[in-house]
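Fig. S4 source data, part A: sequence.
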Amino acid sequence: MLRRLAFINSVYDALIVSNGQPVRRKLFDELHDRARHLIALDGGLERLRRWGVVPEHVVGDLDSVTPATLAWARTAGAKIHRRPSPDEPDVSKGMALCQWLGFRHLAVVGFTGDRPDHMLAVLDMALKATGSVELFTDELVYLPLVGSKKQIITVPQGHLISWFGYPVAEKCSLTGVRWPFRNRTLRMSGFYSLSNEPAAEEVHLSQQRGRSLLSISLNPLNLQGSIKRNENR
């Protein structure tokens, strides 16, 4: 899935497995292969145990994991970090642990679920992180962008690109897509680019200042005739 997608990092310092909506095993394996370290957040450890994969670290308030699973991880050599704080999302605890361990380039899975407030908090934390954080679902990767950025991204045909201010990003340009724009201000409540398509081999992106969230679909879609108008809003 990821091997042909040049916009995905080839190496991560750590892969964080949270306790939300799980990703498919194939996606997990591909990210795990790219990660130097593996960290489980609370009940995410239960999923890893079912897969027979031992993390190096387990962190959280540990109210969503059984004593038997904790004992399994501890016996296998995992370090357990109990961080009781019900008002703080476990992903925040995982990112704080990574910062303490010196891990700067992170991939996160399992951050979505039935708590949209927690998901929004995770996106905000990713934009405030010291290093880079890429957040994966089975369908999308979310790439937080902060401050001045210029990137050239190779996006295969059939994949969709969306770009939002989070909340605001200024002097933003996107070219090499079906609906390009230049020097626009991206706002959550104003202009944004939704379901854009690559129109060239390379997509050029620039942002002068602010915070934004770029998402790219991981799987190609059949777009013929599906979008008939400019989706920049």
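Fig. S4 source data, part B ends here. Residues 223-230 have pLDDT under 50 and may be disordered.
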